[in-house]
Design a protein that fits this description.
By secondary structure, the protein is mainly α. It is built from one helix and no strands. The termini are far apart.
Length: about 50
């Protein structure tokens, strides 16, 4: 009985950890994409005005 509870809690923590790491990964990719878009926009504006 106790072993089943321990296994269930461990599985829950494993799933939650995997989801959180995936979210952090996607958040990082989104952040990089936003930075790249901002940099490209700034460079194009500077090159057009100059």
């Amino acid at each position: 009985m106790i072993l089943g509870v321990v296994l269930g809690v461990w599985l829950l923590f494993t799933v939650v950890g995997a989801i959180l790491s995936m979210l952090k990964f996607f958040f990082f990719i989104g952040l990089v994409a936003v930075v790249v878009v901002l940099a490209v926009t700034l460079v194009s504006k500077m090159s057009r005005s100059g």
